[in-house]
Amino acid sequence: MLETIYFFFNIFIIIFSLIQLLIGIVGNLLIMTVNCRTWIQSKNFSSFDMILCNLSITRCICLCLMFLYLMCHLIFLESKYPELMAVIILNAWIFLDSWSLWIVTLLNTFYCVKIASFNHSLFLWLKRNLSMKTPWLLVACLLVPLFSHFLSLLISKIPNSIQENVSNSTMVSTRDSVFLMMAPVILSFSLQFIINLVSCSLLISSLRKHMQEMQKNANSFWNPQTKAHVGAMKVMIYFLILYIPYSIARLIVFLPSLEIKNFWLRGILTVINCSYSPGHTIFIILLHPKLKARVKNILWCN
């Protein structure tokens, strides 16, 4: 009986996750189409469009890999899953997901610097120079996960004799050695998490103060600039709602000492991992005024 419940629950989780991934792929393809159309028409690629275009491309590839991974699980449900294929897809997903999350971190920082109002000298310098540095920062978003994964690969290639000595010692276990291998990736992810939380918190705090000031003047409360600020604040709040559970689920995947054997919990973690990117993509489209207007023009005018 329990095996039957597990079988149908597993199929439900995979199909539900596949639907979420399809929504995310369509949403990111839509963002790519909008950005390409805007670039062709205006011959101008803003920093925001540049960040969104890179994010949509990396997310699209990442979601396609996750889709392939789950499809293989569905196909090989009754037989042994090809181990080499699983390792390749999983490692490619970890790298692409880290890359896309660094671009999201840059997007949140961009939002914070451009919209928030603070008088600190570092913040003012970023406000003046961030747009010009965007191409280089996008390269950095690629190099950081590339370096962390390369470092993890080097650690995993420690000679067998050293690994045996480490595993035979009473101080370090096999799981600890695996954790050591994943440490660069975990550190990179932790740095992302801190920057995202700080950026979102600063922006939400600044926008909340701005809204309180605007409420004192009822005539100018619903001007276009305020609507844009409200949209940005909603994006940040919804991002945190999605990002924090996703970060916890992703950390559990990274840490071998937190291996999950309960299939109910594994199913929930799978849904969370598959929900973040599609959900954030939809919120960006719906809550960013300019992007929403561009999407409407493509869907309804042409």
Report what the structure shows.
The protein is an all-alpha fold. Helix content is 86%, strand content 0%. Helix 1 runs antiparallel to helix 2, helix 1 crosses helix 9 and helix 8 packs across helix 9. The termini are far apart.
Topology readout:
Layout: H1 2-42, H2 47-75, H3 83-115, H4 121-156, H5 160-168, H6 174-215, H7 224-254, H8 263-287, H9 289-301
Helix pairs in contact: 1-2, 1-8, 1-9, 2-3, 2-4, 3-4, 3-6, 4-6, 6-7, 7-8, 8-9
Key attributes of the depicted protein:
mainly alpha, 9 helices, 302 residues
Classify the helix fraction into a percent range.
Answer: over 70%
N-C termini distance: 54 Å
Radius of gyration: 22 Å
Count of extended strands = 0
SS element count, helices? 9
What is the overall shape? globular
* Estimated structural class: mainly alpha
| Low-confidence residue ranges | 160-164, 166-174
Describe the sheet with the most strands: none
Beta-sheet strand percentage?
under 5%
Secondary-structure element order, as H and E?
Answer: HHHHHHHHH
User: Averaged pLDDT, please?
Assistant: 76
